[in-house]
Amino acid sequence: MARINEHYLKLAGAYLFPEIARRVEAFAALAPELAGRIIRCGVGDVTEPLPASVVAAMHRAVEEMGTREGFRGYGPPWGYDFLRDAIAEGDFRERGIAVDREEIIVSDGSKTDAGAILEIFATGDANRIGITDPVYPVYVDTNVMAGNTGPARPGGSYEGLVPLACTEENGFVPEPPDERLDLVYLCFPNNPTGGMIDRPRLEAWVEWALRHEAIILYDVAYADYVTDPELPRSILEIEDARRCAIEFHSFSKNGGFTGVRCGYTVCPRELRGRTAAGDAVPVLELWKRRWSTRSNSVAYVVQRAAEALYSEAGRRETRALVDGYLANARALREGCAAMGLRVHGGEHAPYVWVGCPDGLDSWGVFDRMLEDLQVVITPGAGFGRLGEGWFRISAFNSPANVAEVVRRMQDAGRLTAAPATG
Amino acid sequence: MARINEHYLKLAGAYLFPEIARRVEAFAALAPELAGRIIRCGVGDVTEPLPASVVAAMHRAVEEMGTREGFRGYGPPWGYDFLRDAIAEGDFRERGIAVDREEIIVSDGSKTDAGAILEIFATGDANRIGITDPVYPVYVDTNVMAGNTGPARPGGSYEGLVPLACTEENGFVPEPPDERLDLVYLCFPNNPTGGMIDRPRLEAWVEWALRHEAIILYDVAYADYVTDPELPRSILEIEDARRCAIEFHSFSKNGGFTGVRCGYTVCPRELRGRTAAGDAVPVLELWKRRWSTRSNSVAYVVQRAAEALYSEAGRRETRALVDGYLANARALREGCAAMGLRVHGGEHAPYVWVGCPDGLDSWGVFDRMLEDLQVVITPGAGFGRLGEGWFRISAFNSPANVAEVVRRMQDAGRLTAAPATG
After folding, report:
1. Which residues on chain A are in Cβ contact (under 8 Å) with B398?
2. Which of A97, A280, B243, B275 has the highest CB neighbour number within 10 Å of its CB?
3. A52-311 has which fold?
4. CB pair distance less than 8 Å for A73 and B45
5. Which residue from B minimizes the CA distance to A272?
């Protein structure tokens, strides 16, 4: 009799985005005359077409794969050198950060990486794990599935994970805690709050991690949205972060790769974990072994697509995509302000984080925005206990749709607990 | 201090194929004048270009992704319906097997699936796990990494995994054991032996699994190499297998997708696992949750490529590819026979399984074949204790290269323990 992984049974309810999809479908079925008006600012999914240089690179790679000379079978387990070199040069060395090819592992995206990284660490209560609240739910759910938590608590958190509060008071950037932690998830620019960390506060985290021999799992999926050169785009800009951090990169939100599937991690050679007996083990060696045994890397065509993002044209096109989404974010901030709401984020991130008006919780706002405005947002409660009282509005949409959303917001006037229609 | 997953430290040496690559590189460095002569029949990697219908489908999909109307971001977590429907129809319903879309999960390949499936089962000694010997090493290594084994034993096996012997005597098809097992890996047509199971023996396995409430992890990556219609291409052809099997499919070896990365699993709705308390849990629900939380599925372009394999042209082209590799396998059988070796497999599989001559072990044959003939094979010892005394020769090559390998074998004459050169 095969025994299942019972940790899965602790998972509280459906994953956030399927639940949103369910409510949108239900609304469209109840009010079919309004279904065509629905504009989705919920899931953080890009909407603009792939850059021309990416399209051209993919066509070339497909062509190669159709010829005997150009055909490529299994690729190197950690990604092709052409891509790892382009990454090392374009994202690090050009910015004065020493990262080399061997420290870069190409993957099919940050969601995969966020779950996979837990495979190389001990499970159960071997590590004390810190996770921001609110947070990208995948960090939490993958820990539950790996057996690193106790049961769910009311509100969606889990026993055994240490919450790091991100509040309006601390500008949505947590301070390092007084206690020991072994693994800490940080993400800046932040999903969902759109908040951004400055260099002194990131230095404080690195110093804290070195003192506690903790490892920071640092997610920079939104690095290209940082528009202020004084703000850190990579934790590896901080001295000594190589001894305490693994960095997670994605091409989803800059190159528009949500449907292309490519990202990468940087695991510095110096980074060490420990056995129960206290022996130091290079984390990179475990991480490489994870990938060579569990995967055959990413499609050749996809790796050529990612490489094209580092070409001169690719960078220009990426910049234009990101600038477009940032302009959307600015417009959405204004729209939300017009509804009398407290607004954060959206300056160095494609997400605007908005306070719920008195008398409405975040699923309440979700339902009101859907029913009254036909605009889909993401309720903050889906991101953790401290996400309650907030909602996330995504700038990933066409400028025309964003203008329409803002117009609807302005027409609707102040969002209050009393329904605007019906 | 972050604690690592110490199960990784049990892994015995490098993964097989990196070790082969290392020896080939070392030989090429020592004998650069012979390096150009090397023909690789080691790794089971296809060599022929992608089918024209696949190339055309990928071009179309790339084109779509470059337009606002055609662009696709995040896809459904378990694969697009167009592909799941094509699979359900083409691989099952047309053959009279009832499988529907919802039971099919698209992935980036069988290697990923083989590791990922363990995530939904309990680890440690909660399940008794049977693995054939010899075997595709990924089944073993992923169990080690998941913590399902004790330490390595001499010869490369691990305490805690129950070996199912595949020998010349049983035609490389193990009988169901007398003891209880909870999870059993079977692969037919087999990698590495090229052996094939017949229907009565597969029925015996299904009957055994139902009696013991075991789950069979059934790998049919090579199903299209079955040329005898009396032999089972899918375990789901057997009555009641829906209550005891998960099937693993790959497009690597029929469509030539080793560099495209796509495969799928079929997890029947009726399949149940148990909690420690004995409650039955539908395995499909856990498996779907695994994929929706840990991945964002496979590139749209890749899913369109896989769909094209089910078109009329795609089927014709796939058949031609497989027939070509099967013709290679026949030629290699003859070449090995010319060297006075015992030959198995290669009839319903792209692998020929060859006995080592007296006085040479399988790494010895590897070195002799490399040094004397400049032909790379895979030593049987890399596949398990009972693989020693055998080697695998892969038919994945161009017809011209295979003809050249056969010519070299015939020229070399009998392979004996005494070196032919030097």
Report:
1. 68
2. A97
3. Aspartate Aminotransferase; domain 2 (3.40.640)
4. yes
5. B2
Percent of chain A with pLDDT over 70: 98
Pairing of strands B129-133, B183-187: parallel
pLDDT digits (tens, 9 = 90+) for A229-275: 999 999 999 999 999 999 999 999 999 999 999 999 999 999 999 99
Q: How far apart, in whole angstroms, are the C-alpha atoms of residue A197 and residue A176?
A: 13
The Cα–Cα gap between A81 and B43 comes to 20
Confidence of residue A116 (pLDDT cuts 50, 70, 90): very high
B72-104: pLDDT as tens digits: 999 999 999 999 999 999 999 999 999 999 999
**pTM for the predicted model, two decimal places:** 0.96
The CATH architecture that domain A13-50+313-412 belongs to is: Alpha-Beta Complex (3.90)
| Contact list, A52 vs chain B (CB under 8 Å) | 66
Give yes or no for A126 touching B (CB within 8 A).
yes
Domain with CATH 3.90.1150.10 in chain A: 13-50+313-412
Tell me, rounded to whole angstroms, the distance of Cα A272 from its chain centroid. Answer: 25
Choose from B1, B291, B304 for mutation: most chain A CBs within 10 A: B1
Mutate one of B46, B74, B158 to test the A interface: name it (highest A CB count within 10 A): B74
The answer to whether the Cβ–Cβ distance between B8 and A261 falls below 8 Å is no
| Helices A300-308, B300-308: crossing angle, 10 deg rounding | 150
Beta bridge partners of A355: A390
Residues in A touching B294 (Cβ below 8 Å): 111-112, 115-116, 138, 142, 145
pLDDT higher than 90, residue A421: no
| Identity at A103, one-letter amino acid code | E
Q: In the predicted model, is pLDDT for residue B417 greater than 90? A: no
Q: Where does the pLDDT of residue A422 fall: very low under 50, low under 70, confident under 90, or very high at 90 and above?
A: very low
Question: Contact B258/A142, CB-based, under 8 Å?
Answer: no
Q: Please, are residues B159 and B153 in contact by the beta-carbon 8 Å criterion?
A: yes
Question: What are the residue ranges of CATH 3.40.640.10 in chain B?
Answer: 52-311
User: Is there a cis peptide before residue A189, judged by omega within 30 degrees of 0?
Assistant: yes
ipTM value = 0.96
CATH 3.90.1150.10 residue ranges of chain B are: 13-49+313-412
Distance between CA B250 and CA A51 in Å, rounded? 31
Cα-based angle A171, A176, A181 (whole degrees, multiple of 5): 140
Residue B413 CB partners (closer than 8 Å, separation 6+): B338, B339, B420
Residues of B in contact with A4 (CB under 8 A): 120-122, 273-275, 281, 283, 286
B179 in contact with A, Cβ within 8 Å: no
pLDDT digits (tens, 9 = 90+) for A61-85: 999 999 999 999 999 999 999 999 9
Tell me, what amino acid is at A8?
Answer: Y
What are the two backbone dihedrals, phi and then psi, of residue A282, each rounded to the nearest 5 degrees? -65, 125
**Span B60-72, pLDDT tens digits:** 999 999 999 999 9
Tokens 């901030």 appear where? A333
A260 with A57: CB under 8 angstroms?
no
- Please, what is the average pLDDT of chain B? 95
User: Given CB atoms, is A214 within the 8 Å cutoff of chain B?
Assistant: yes
